[in-house]
Specification:
Elements: E1 2-6, E2 12-16, H1 22-59, E3 61-62, E4 71-72, H2 76-82, H3 85-117, H4 123-135, H5 138-149, H6 154-161, H7 178-202, H8 207-215, H9 220-231, H10 233-250, H11 252-258, H12 270-280, H13 284-308
Antiparallel strand pairs: 1-2, 3-4
Helix pairs in contact: 1-13, 2-13, 3-7, 3-10, 4-7, 5-11, 7-10, 8-9, 10-13, 11-12, 12-13
Length: about 325
């Protein structure tokens, strides 16, 4: 931008205008960034914050179905939920699921990702193979496990072929094994994708760190856990939080496709209980009360994971 000035002889001359102050330029840049973020913020408020607030509102209502009259229930739904033994069975099953699936998945995925990050022969093919469970749809994965664990499936056939026919079982229909089968499906479905994420992050760690550790006499095991793990500790925490949320909230589809929460309530989880009460029992108030419990459990779990995996330096 230029300005017109008058010289002593009366003629006009153009002079460049002084540059804008840095603070003003910074404010303009921030305002431009805010404008660009408005569509995403509106989308987030409407489709994320809105449904979250609706959970708390519906939890305080007596709503026996989508087209039924609605009345205010107050804390009655909370009393009903906490007095229901099915809720406590679902809580126990969810706690067992998280306590088993999450540590096994994260530890095994980290070790597998570390191996891939060392670029062994065929490491590119290994990455694609690890991604396969993540590419398979949930119904297809459920059908694979159903074919393997049905009474005349692959698992029982293999046991009989090895002369261990006494160990055969109706795995998905037995109260002692149904939940374990669902946990195995969670681990199988998530470990490969998580390992690829760890391998990508470990690939950015300088090679000099591992080489220096090995020169000091550290083996692969110690290098993996004492050198590389502290470097990506915060990333491990992020991936753990993502898998925690998926296991906590996404297990309902596996339960629905394989066990329907049975036998009895042996494989009923909190997320499946939300679905069951909303779409089968048509008790939306009860369903969303359990949804509130699920939301609070997820929030507490995320804060705990963040605290465990935060950097200590």
């Amino acid at each position: 931008m230029t300005t017109l000035t008058t010289t002593p002889d009366g003629t006009a001359a153009r002079r460049p205008a002084p540059p804008a102050p840095p603070a003003a330029a910074g404010r303009a840049t921030r305002q431009g960034g805010t404008v660009l973020a408005v569509p995403a913020l509106v989308w987030y408020l409407v489709f994320m914050v809105g449904p979250m607030l609706a959970i708390f509102v519906i939890a305080a209502l007596r709503w026996p179905g989508m087209l039924q009259p609605v009345s205010f229930a107050g804390l009655d739904n909370v009393r009903t939920v906490f007095a229901d033994p099915v809720f406590w069975d679902a809580t126990r099953n969810t706690a067992v699921q998280l306590a088993v699936a999450l540590p096994v998945m994260i530890v095994c995925a980290y070790m597998l990702g570390y191996y891939v990050a060392q670029r062994p022969p065929g490491h590119r093919v290994i990455r694609y193979l690890l991604f396969i469970p993540g590419l398979i749809s949930t119904p297809a994965k459920a059908m694979v496990f159903y074919a393997a664990l049905s009474p005349d499936g692959l698992a029982n056939g293999a046991l009989q072929g090895m002369g261990l026919g006494s160990l055969t079982d109706a795995w998905l229909a037995s109260p002692s094994t149904a939940l374990g089968c669902l946990i195995a499906l969670d681990i199988w479905g998530g470990i490969g994708f998580t390992a690829v994420l760890f391998a990508a992050r470990l690939g950015s760690v300088p090679d000099e760190l591992g080489e220096a550790a090995q020169l000091d006499g550290a083996g692969h095991w110690r290098t993996m856990w004492a050198v590389h793990f502290p470097v990506i500790r915060d990333y491990v925490g992020v991936v753990t939080m993502l898998q925690f949320l998926w296991t906590l909230s996404g297990s309902a589809q596996h339960v629905l496709l394989l066990t329907q929460g049975g036998p009895g309530t042996s494989s009923t989880t909190l997320s499946f209980l939300v679905y069951q009460k909303a779409f089968i029992a048509a008790d939306l108030g009860y369903s969303q009360t359990v949804g509130v419990v699920l939301f609070l459990a997820g929030l507490v779990g995320l804060l705990a994971i963040r605290r465990v995996f935060r950097q200590t330096y």
